Amino acid sequence: MMQLDLFVDYAPRLAVQSATRTTDRQMRGRVNYLSGLAAEDIVARDYARRGMTEIARRWRGTVGEIDLICRNGDDVVIIEIKKSATFDRAAARLSRRQMDRIYATAAEFIGSEPRGQLTDVRLDLALVDAGAALRIVENAFWDA
After folding, report:
1. Which of 18, 53, 55, 125 lies 20 to 30 Å from 43 when distance is taken between CA atoms?
2. Rounded to an integer, what distance in angstroms lies between the CA atom of residue 44 and that of residue 41?
3. 77-92 pLDDT per residue, tens
4. 8 A C-beta contact, residue 91 and residue 103
């Protein structure tokens, strides 16, 4: 049911955009953008269901962007969201360079927290497949 709800939420935007003259590449870009928004909503709803409070979505620092930031009590949870046809393909899209950028951006965000760099932080990887199924890998960056 969630898949249908998300399609209903985003389908009007896609219909308006496709009414204009676009190339196939532009259309794929728009579809990817909207499916990315849908994936973010799926992940945000899951974290909210687990009792976490959303702090920010697509938070931009000087080095990069964090897809989703939640608070779990006094702890901060940084979430990188990857969407692809399968969970394995989604996970493979996270590069070492991107992890380094996420670390730097997370450090910048944490610097603005009341406890600063002493804030307890967890970095999760949220994988969304083509069927809108979700897999969360908590502390995904721990051994990275």
Report:
1. 18
2. 5
3. 999 999 999 999 999 9
4. no
User: For 17-63, how does the pLDDT look when each residue is reduced to its tens digit (9 = 90+)?
Assistant: 555 566 888 888 888 888 889 999 999 999 999 999 999 999 999 99
Which amino acid type is present at position 75? D
Tokens 């970095």 correspond to: 123
Question: b vs e for 109-129, b when ≥16 Cβ sit within 10 Å of the residue's Cβ?
Answer: bbeebeeeeeeebbbbbbbbb
What lies within 8 Å, CB to CB, of 121 at 6+ separation is: 75, 76, 77, 78, 106, 110
Environment class of 37 (CB within 10 Å of its CB; exposed 0-12, middle 13-18, buried 19+): middle
DSSP 86-104: SHHHHHHT--HHHHHHHHH
What string of DSSP letters covers 39-82?
A: HHHHHHHHHHHTTPEEEEEEEE-SS-EEEEEEEETTEEEEEEEE
pTM: 0.80
